[in-house]
Amino acid sequence: MADGTVTRLILIPNAVQVWVLENDREVGGVTAHVAVSERADETLLSDKLVSRLGIVLLDIGEGIWCFRDEIGKTVRRSL
Known about the structure:
- By secondary structure, this protein is mostly beta strands.
- It has one domain (about 10-75).
- The protein has one helix at about 45-50; strands spanning about 10-20, 25-35, 55-60, 65, 75.
- The protein is globular, with a radius of gyration of 15 Å.
């Protein structure tokens, strides 16, 4: 873990279909593995999954992003 502790992960290959649902579009149907940690309390998305969904991170700390085809046109905010 980031704090230096060790934890066990359970990997479930090809466990889910991931979608991004926005008011103006739905993107996805991307098959992804799930790694379950007994200590995790947040969902993490890998760089590969984010890329396959066409997401571009503009300001990670502020949760600002857009889809690849929206660069310079649209800014979205995470919840």
